[in-house]
Structure formats: C-alpha cells, structure tokens
Design brief:
The protein is globular. It contains ten helices and 13 strands. By secondary structure, it is of the alpha+beta class.
Amino acid sequence: MATEDNNKSNRRNFLKLGALGGIALAGTAITSAISDNEIPKTTGKKVKVLTADGKLIEIDSSHVDHHAANDKFTKEEVRQGIEGKKFIRVIDLGRCANERKCIEGCQTAHHILAPIEYIKVKKMQDSPLASPYWFPTMCYHCDNPPCTKVCPVDATFKRSDGIVAVDADRCIGCKFCMAACPYSARTFNFGRPEQVKFTEEHKNDTSAENFCATPYAQEGTVAKCDFCTDRSAQGLLPACVVECPNGAIFHGDELEDVVTNGEDTFRLKKLLEDRAGYRQFEELGTKPRVYYLPPVKRNFPFEDATEAHNTKE
C-alpha cells in the first residue's frame, strides 16, 4: 500500500509539472530541483512565460528558474559594467557629411562586412523649405530599454556603465528585441559574415586604433552597436569616433561630465545647454544615452552621398 501511495504521489507531481511542459524557452526553464515528494511553495508572484505553441501564460514564479546569471553560457564579466563609468554620446549633426568612415570603422572593429551595419546614416529634412542634413543612428543604449524587457532568455541586458549589451551565446534569434526597439537599431545575422582579414600586427596588438575584441555575432543571432565595450575598458575611444574625419561623434562619461571626439573636448552639460541638445523620440520614455546637436552653423553645405562619391571618383 505504501508503494502504491508513493506512486500516486509521484504521478501527481509529474502531472503538475507536465502542465508546464510547454514552456520551452531556456530563460524560463522549469525548476529542476523539485524532489519526488515535494512541490515548491507558491510565492503569489505571477510571471509570464511563452509556451512552445506560442501562447503567453501566467504561472507562479516558484515554477521557474531564471538561471541566466549562473549557467555556463553567461560570461559574468561581460554583464558587469566598468566601475565608475556611465558612457554617453553626443552627435553634432552640423559636422556630419555622410562620408561613411564611421560605418567602415565599426565594421572593421567588429570583424564584419557589408551589408551588416551597426551605424546607419539617414537623409533627414524637417520640412520642404528646410535644408536636408545627415542623421547617424545606432543603438542608443537606453536607460529604460524596451529590448531587455522582452528578451525571453536574458541575452540582452543593461550594464551598470550604461551600455546595453548582447550575449551572443545566449541569443536564440527570436527577434523580440528587434520588434521592441523603436529605433530599429538591431540587425539579424541570417548568415555568418565573412571575417575581416587583419594584419598580424592588429591581431596581436589589442590597443591598435581600429581593433575591437568584441566578437561578431554568430549566425542566427541579433547584434548591434555596443559602444565598443572592449576599447572603452582600455580607455580608448570607440572606432566610429576615431574614424569620423569631421569629428561629428563625441563620446564620454556622464559622471565626469565630459565628452570628446579625440581633438575637441567639452563639458557635457554645457555643450547640451549651449547647443540645444536633444534625444530622439524623447516622448517614448526610453531615455537614450545618445544626444544630438541640431544641424546649425554647418561646417559645409549638404551634399548627396551618391553625387559626392561620383565627383570624387
């Protein structure tokens, strides 16, 4: 009789767990530490999980084990920000000529080639009578990022230094983050990009100006601008800042109240106040860490990139 009771108890436990069996995403894996005769105590806190057939359901948090921080796929040091830093960026639209050097520098630094671009430069015109201007976009590393909230496996996360990073080893390519980002800052790698052939000098010298140790995204995963985290850790400016010939991109530390393009250095708050700095889609409440300076006092007149390229050739 005791054996029969134990079998019934085991079966009850199995059925209770079986009801959650459709939860197939790694980030919401069912707790495996449940003994044969024990069901975890309910917490009363409900969490939403996605089942294998695409249904969003609510279950008690005691039935899930969010193990992103302690499994073998997570690089803990990558998830920790650089202590005492809060990276921020300012782009002077009056200096941008769409020479694409920032894009090329980023591609080289991250070992990727076209058509993958983490930086995109768009032609903007505020009204029919207004002069057009170039508008570089990238990941804005928001302080209230919608992308991190929808990732089911905790592959994208906010670091203490302000950077929104991606763990390519955890990414399952569901594209939820791409759909959630209002800035279209992310790109999906349908096939692994060809790796840029570095010289032996660049391979061995991690301080080289166009080197970034951050690995490129793998096939079937999502990638984006990462503020050149490895270069930042070494005290170097991101590749796009270094490569811009007009000094349009300023990078710095909000805590130190300073930004620089490598030649010119400004107090962040004063620069934004004096030049009426703003953030894109401020009304969304995402709190981007990239500011723009309006395209006034142009360094040069607007020129279409195609026409300029043909003229140079």
